[in-house]
Specification:
Strand content: under 5%
Structural class: little secondary structure
Distance between the termini: 15 Å
Radius of gyration: 6 Å
Shape: flat
Largest sheet: none
Number of helices: 0
Number of strands: 0
C-alpha cells in the first residue's frame, strides 16, 4: 500500500479515510 503522499485516500498504514 502506498503512503498518503502517493495515495491521498490511504494513510501510512494503508487504511482508507477518504
Amino acid at each position: 500500500m502506498a503512503p498518503r503522499e502517493q495515495n491521498p485516500y490511504l494513510d501510512s498504514a494503508g487504511h482508507a479515510w477518504g
